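Thylakoid lumenal protein structure dump, as promised
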Amino acid sequence: MGATTFSFISTLPSLLPNLSSYPSLPIAHRYSHKTQGSICCQSIDPLVCQEDGFSRRDMLKCFGATIGMEIIASSGSSVQTANAADIIQRRQRSDFLGDIKKSLYTAIKGKPELVPSILMLALNDAMTYDKATKSGGPNGSIRFSSEISRLENQGLSAALDLLEEVKKEIDSSSKGGPISYADLIQCAAQSALKNSFLASAIRKAGGNEEKGNLLYTAYGSNGQWGLFDRNFGRTDAQEPDPEGRIPQWGKASVQEMKDKFTAVGFGPRQLAVMSAFLGPDQAATESLLATDKDVLPWVVKYQRSRETVSETDYEVDLITTLTKLSCLGQQINYEAYTYPAVATISLMPALEKLGA
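structure tokens r here:
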């Protein structure tokens, strides 16, 4: 992006009188030794031009100020250019993310029965993270046929197929390159959760969709997604993640679930709040989790929260947990999906003046 620059130095001649019309300015100085070890510099002749009083000292001050202004202006233009580029990139990423959300919302709204599978798809893609080797995590590796066909991912192919269709739509209009599967899968989980939050609000409004939307807008957790949205720029893996890192949630004991959550840095609280990610029947999953004394208090807490109008505790804790889960082991590229901006200049004002 180009930056408009100008020079203060070019204005200097207009600030000075025509010095050629004046006699030479005296510059001789007399040095007097007032005390031993000190030197005093005094001027013999006044440094004043004869006609308008524009002194040589004034000229030097003017030149010094002009140089300073020039340095400030040049450095300021670099900062302004950098800031403008950063603002443009943020806007590009924000617009792209907005398009992704719209596409995902429409697709998931059309197939709400896939919401549990989309949530588990995001969970299983991220839960391959291994702290010891810093490998795995939400890297889109679950898209590979050898990984999606594993026992723990059984029944998730339909959700992946839906996201493949959404990806084609998103990529066809993207100016900053195709969206990574890693980003797409986690953004799909976000959209699925928002869909379920909104559906809950509509139920509490007696099935009235308009009132439910107003309820969710007024009391819902939509404003809590800021950090999740900023962590946008995950990199896709180029091969499947190692096997044996994820249990079959539907067959695992609560202790096995706790062990796996502990391995990635979570605890009973996060296990309880992510009950919707662990199977198609959230109530049945919570009944199982409630048999564990460490998980039980959190299950009760979130069940009670879901009975309130706002569901604040449940929704906020779930968003916080998903945000952390969706970044396990990932180095986020905050310049992903940006592209060179093309400056456009309108000639219409100038043409209108010429016409006038």
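The domain at 90-325 is CATH 1.10.520.10 (Peroxidase; domain 1).
lmk if u need the other ones
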